[in-house]
Design a protein that fits this description.
Two copies of one chain form a homodimer. By secondary structure, chain A is an alpha+beta fold. Helix content of chain A is 28%, strand content 28%. The first copy, chain A, starts with 9 loop residues before the first strand and ends with a strand.
């Protein structure tokens, strides 16, 4: 176990979107500086980072300069090229570690790994071609969802197969990428647990939140989730088990389906998670600070919930409602500093407390 | 009344200390960028600002470049040279305005102005030389405190006169600067009100906090203050009256003495205030965001208190206690990113919630 980072140390963040932005702010609260590595200019995280290194993930010299300018490295998205990680890891610790990234970068690997841990997941089968899809549909049945194994987010890279006649179109939508067929699950709701594991192995989970999606994008997270105490406890135990099995350091998001037969793991995200944004106004220490504490080797903070919260994402032209939202009582606004409010683009969120 | 600033606009902040740092973070939450004007390098605010313009307040070209790069200007300290303000104001609005600065920069002007408003203050008299001090002591009596009229903070520029024999030493401690003699007030406690006035003239005040000082430096603020409902209401009314009389825009800190004869105004600070740091963990919208909202011409946020809080400053070698403090429950840590923990230097604070 290494020494905790001292205030004044620099934490390197791969990726400069809104998650990197809110991680930077949390790092500043603990006296850390941040350096953001992000190919795009004027990115959300750059506005609050001490330094923005603008370079591509294939720029080895830039990666080395970045690694040498920081004391520990973390990331805000899981699809970081393996070659970049190899370069970085030779110079500074990456937290969470490579295992979590390797597993969560590929839906097939992830589902197999979760099953190996004894956790329930939706029925699935790998699909590389039409023949594979046909036999997968035979086994799993339809309706089902065909998803690219890698690089999917916010419903992108997914195609629904309602009847077998949709199969060809769905496969074409994968653009030749390796895919996975997932059976539809009869679930009453989706919940998620934001868990953190410290460098010392201690685990702390925030209360489970209940998620509503629209058009494949998270719309709203409500805490507490309206599930029984037993279900909430199970969800936290599952998240803890995943964190420990991965020898994980940092925050991990675990999405779960509540079904008549118990909880199914939908997916895991090895990073701070949109469904954990409510913690900013429901807890003394939010998911961003928990992550920074873990990455810095600090003790985890107190993430117990002091208020009921409904988090609503502000997507695309939701921004037109800004004048009204900014005047609301019992509401806290969080904007990401993005320019154009394109359809489907996450521009910010609002946390409303109710208890 | 001008239009509210749109997200993506830049707010210029004069001064790069911890107050500028926390203002920058609050600005980012609302989607604003910040540019910090500060002569010192590696200052606390620079770590989270979009841009740090490092130049002196006598550098006219830099002041103009700064003003032209931002949409509105605010400040984190009141002792900004008048000549610099003249340059800036020709290019962009400064909020709060010049009147509040002019009055609060000079203890004598401030006390006279407060008296003119019908508010009670401690007995006072201007002191320019030994003759003036002698006649002031005749009028006010001792013990009393001799203070420089300008540039005092955290107990600096003050000398206590217990008996007339201390007078000469006290005057020498002023280093020839114009001074003011203030009579000692028989007060049971000091409280403060953090009030905000929007560009639309609306006023919102946070709950009064109770302050404890050590060695002339704020040590602890407790909310709610243990005063009667009537005293709390009076305090808020006094703050509101000051805000309105100044046609103020932004956050103002008002320190008050609770005495048997009612509330006395100790001093006002035309900026976010150390005794308002508790709002970060006691309210949905804290003093920093209220200030940014006002400066940006936005509606004020909901500053109602959801928790009881004790804010403790971390000063100098209090930082040695960091390992223990960082592991506390029901506590939120806020560090300022300063290097050396010199005696008397404010390094951070911790908010502890208790209700």
């Amino acid at each position: 176990m290494t020494d905790p980072l001292k205030p004044g140390s620099t934490i390197g963040i791969l990726g400069g979107g809104q998650l990197g932005r809110m991680l930077s702010v949390a790092a500043s609260r603990l006296g850390f500086k941040t350096c953001v590595f992000e190919p795009g200019g004027d990115c959300p995280a750059s506005h609050v980072a001490n330094f923005h290194l603008q370079a591509g993930f294939d720029d080895e010299a830039a990666l080395i300069a970045f690694a040498e300018s920081v004391d520990a490295i973390t990331f805000e998205f899981e699809n970081i090229p393996t070659a970049a990680l190899d370069v970085l890891e030779a110079h500074r610790p990456i937290r969470p570690g490579r295992d979590a990234l390797r597993i969560s970068q590929d839906r097939l690997t992830e589902k197999e790994w979760l099953e190996g841990l004894g956790l329930k997941v939706a029925p699935f089968a790998p699909v590389d071609d039409m023949q594979g899809l046909t036999s997968a549909l035979d086994r799993i049945g339809s309706p089902a969802i065909l998803k690219t194994r890698r690089f999917g987010y916010d419903g992108k890279g997914q195609a629904r197969i309602a009847a077998d006649t949709d199969a060809e179109a769905a496969l074409e939508a994968m653009n030749g990428a390796p895919a996975i067929l997932e059976g539809m699950v009869d679930f009453s709701k989706e919940i998620s647990v934001i868990g953190t594991r410290g460098l010392d192995g201690r685990v702390a989970c925030f209360d489970p939140g209940e998620n509503q999606h629209e058009g494949g994008i998270l719309r709203r997270t409500t805490v507490p989730a309206s599930v029984s105490h037993g279900v909430a406890t199970d969800a936290v135990l599952i998240a803890s088990r995943i964190l420990t099995a991965l020898d994980y350091v940092g925050v991990l998001g675990v999405e779960l389906f509540v079904t008549p037969g118990g909880l199914l793991v939908n997916e895991i995200a090895p990073r701070v998670h949109n469904s954990g944004h409510w913690t900013q106004n429901g807890c003394m220490v939010d998911q961003f600070e928990q992550h920074i504490r873990a990455v810095a080797g600090w003790p985890l903070g107190d993430g117990s919930r002091h208020s009921d919260v409904v988090m609503e994402n502000l997507i695309g032209d939701d921004m037109d409602r800004l004048p009204a939202i900014s005047a609301e009582g019992r509401a806290a606004l969080h904007l990401y500093g993005k320019g154009e409010a394109r359809p489907g683009r996450k521009m910010g969120h609002v946390n409303r407390i109710s208890g």
